[in-house]
Design brief:
alpha/beta, two-stranded parallel sheet
Length: 660
């Protein structure tokens, strides 16, 4: 199928979704109630883009909320537009509070702040009532005042059926917030700030000296984790004793050795990003001046290692890639030996599994993979059936065939994880995965990353939640976030920079900072422009003469304590400015437990012990169980911010669980 036909299908899907979504859909920061049909459209689009051959595992969801240009607006469209504007206002206010609290010159001690407030209240009680201090929240920021007015104007225009004015108000309010995002001050919290450093950028560097300039830029921009493309289509970026051939475009030097050195000199972590089962790429063949059907240096020497479709083809007709067969024990041994070489030869801090799946398939179109002779024989021994003779209508056996292939990938992850951790227990293992629902993912690509996380095989799950608007990013991210409570793995959603406006990238990062995740990952370094670099330098870059921030997967307890102090600063800032509304006895209960929790977290950060971590977990659980009730009055006017705080408490809870 051609790309034009795919895009036609896409437009039909999106329009169908717009015309059929129900009106009564409310979306909170947790995204617990969103339009199922819209999500179906997003997922269908993801699969269409896969079918079209999206590069480097990149699935990009285009912007879903371009303002409709027809005369009127449907109730569904109005509801969605209101939700998106409310979400943007919430993220803007959250970013503004983080910036003001982080850069204020007040003494942000919760106990001192409370003592000051109580003393002022005692003094005020002796004065005239008219001079008493108000305890109601205030929205004094003129941008927020104007934005809320714009949202109300939008609602009023809709009520009057003046759709032209409604569109104008919506656009102006969105632009107002984007143009005034607080990007002149630091506002980041301790988090994973990762970026994929792609093969093309590495090749263009040509030397350690040029690569050093790139690492200088990344360090100044505040990134603490680099996913360095180490094996691409069977070509390692380094001279290997296991793989038959180094990438010809970097012969004469060792980019991986240089990258490890450069990253560590700048107090960054370097994780080797490895294509696992994707073994060859016709597009790369052109760059290397190889025949288009060249299977790469490994499959050419071992053609029986190839993952074949029902017609015996190795190359996928759309993605133009050929894969290894995960069911082949020799394939698994080779790949694990390659990973062990990386872990033992280089002081990498982590290894990331990419293409850890089967090729994209559509059984409904009679397009499936896994039919090597080795796989067919194994499945026949288990079931007495040749999978090449199965049809989708053979429901039970087809499900068993899908499970068989999924188990081959699972087996590799389990074995690789065990052997790599034996070589280096401190090695951080991650996987770049798809965020589409598990049943469809098993059906299409046999990737069951939830199991890997639950079994403890991975430290980080990095879903490729690529979208061209923040609303779509939230909807793709939410199912992964909902799963995170079931494992100790941290979730690090991905953002793709290609074709993404800079301010939307900033807004998407703010969304992820407001969700209970460990941080974010940007794809890729080749798309990090000068403007974004400058924004990152100001908002998340390291400060001079300060201790480096802890990295969540490396120092979870220190990160937990640090992130909680960030929360305290925000609460103190609001208290100092008379904007945190809370009545007695809630105020006394909240402040006492908040202070006790602070002491516990600081204690375990300095002197961790299993018993003290358990005490902190218990205190935090108790605090969270009452938090929404304590914040009920404030939350009535600022529900987004209260949910953000609870999400951050949830992340702290997750960090304590990693250590204990």
């Amino acid at each position: 199928m051609g790309l034009g036909m795919l895009m036609g299908k896409l437009l039909n899907l999106v329009q169908h979704g717009r015309n059929n979504r129900t009106v009564n859909q409310e979306r909170t920061i947790k995204g617990s109630t969103v339009s199922c049909l819209k999500i179906s459209c997003l997922l269908a689009l993801s699969l269409l883009l896969l079918e079209a051959g999206a590069q480097a595992e990149s699935i990009v969801v285009p912007a879903q909320r371009s303002i409709p240009q027809k005369v009127d607006l449907t109730a569904v469209e109005v509801t969605a537009m209101i939700q998106e504007l409310e979400g943007l206002i919430g993220r803007f206010e959250s970013a503004l509070l983080a910036a003001e609290a982080a850069n204020g010159d007040l003494d942000f001690s919760l106990s001192a702040t409370i003592e000051k407030i109580l003393a002022e209240q005692s003094t005020e009680a002796t004065k005239e009532v008219s001079s008493s201090v108000s305890s109601s929240p205030q929205s004094t920021n003129p941008i927020l005042v104007q934005a809320r007015r714009g949202l109300q104007n939008f609602r009023d225009a809709i009520a009057q059926k003046d759709f032209s004015k409604a569109r104008q108000e919506w656009n102006q309010t969105q632009r107002l917030l984007w143009d005034n995002y607080p990007l002149d001050r630091k506002l980041a919290q301790p988090e994973i700030r990762a970026i994929w450093l792609d093969r093309g950028t590495i090749v263009r560097a040509r030397s350690e000296k040029d690569l050093a300039k790139l690492f200088d830029q990344l360090a100044a921009a505040g990134f603490n984790t680099v996913f360095f493309e180490t094996v691409n289509a069977s070509y390692p970026i380094y001279p290997s004793s296991v793989a038959p051939e180094q990438n010809p475009l970097v012969r004469g030097w060792d980019p991986l050795a240089a990258a490890v050195k450069l990253a560590h000199e700048r107090q960054m972590e370097l994780h080797a990003w490895v294509w696992i089962f994707a073994a060859a790429n016709q597009r790369h063949n052109l760059l290397l001046k190889q025949p288009v059907d060249y299977l790469g240096p490994v499959l050419e020497a071992n053609p029986d290692w190839a993952n074949l479709d029902q017609k015996g083809r190795a190359f996928h007709p759309d993605t133009k890639k050929a894969f290894f067969d995960p069911a082949n024990p020799e394939v698994q041994r080779y790949l694990i030996s390659l990973l062990e070489e990386i872990a033992s030869k280089y002081e990498v801090d982590g290894i990331q599994f990419d293409y850890i799946r089967y090729p994209f398939q559509d059984p409904n179109m009679n397009q499936t993979y896994g039919y090597s002779m080795v796989a067919r024989q194994q499945f026949h021994q288990q079931t007495g059936v040749d999978p090449a003779k199965l049809r989708l209508s053979d429901h039970n056996l087809w499900r068993e065939w899908a499970d068989f292939r999924t188990q081959q990938v699972d087996r590799f992850v389990a074995s690789a994880s065990k052997k790599l951790r034996q070589k280096n227990p401190d090695l951080i293992l991650s996987a770049a995965v798809f965020a589409i629902p598990r049943p469809e993912r098993i059906h299409k690509i046999q990737q069951h990353w939830e199991s890997w996380a639950e079994q403890g095989y991975l430290d980080l799950i990095v879903p490729m939640t690529y979208a061209l608007d923040t609303d779509s990013l939230q909807q793709l991210t939410q199912p992964v976030v909902s799963f995170s409570d079931r494992s100790r793995s941290l979730i690090v959603p991905g953002i793709r920079l290609l074709q993404l406006p800079d301010i939307v990238a900033v807004d998407q990062i703010q969304l992820l900072r407001d969700l209970p995740v460990g941080g974010y990952a940007l794809f890729a370094a080749e798309n990090l422009n000068d403007n974004l670099h400058e924004i990152f330098r100001r908002t998340q870059g390291p400060e001079e003469d300060t201790t480096p921030e802890p990295v969540p997967y490396r120092q979870p307890l220190k990160t937990a304590a640090n992130r909680y102090q960030t929360l305290l600063r925000e609460w103190c800032f609001l208290l100092e400015n008379n904007q945190l509304k809370m009545q007695e006895p809630a105020f006394s209960q909240w402040s006492r437990q908040a202070e006790e929790l602070s002491v516990l977290l600081e204690s375990i950060a300095e002197e961790p012990s299993k018993s003290n971590v358990s005490k902190a977990q218990s205190a935090l659980s108790s605090f969270r169980s009452r938090f929404q009730k304590w914040m009920r009055e404030y939350g009535a006017e600022k529900p987004y911010q209260v949910q953000v705080w609870d999400n951050r408490l949830q992340t702290i809870e997750k960090l304590l669980g990693i250590e204990n």
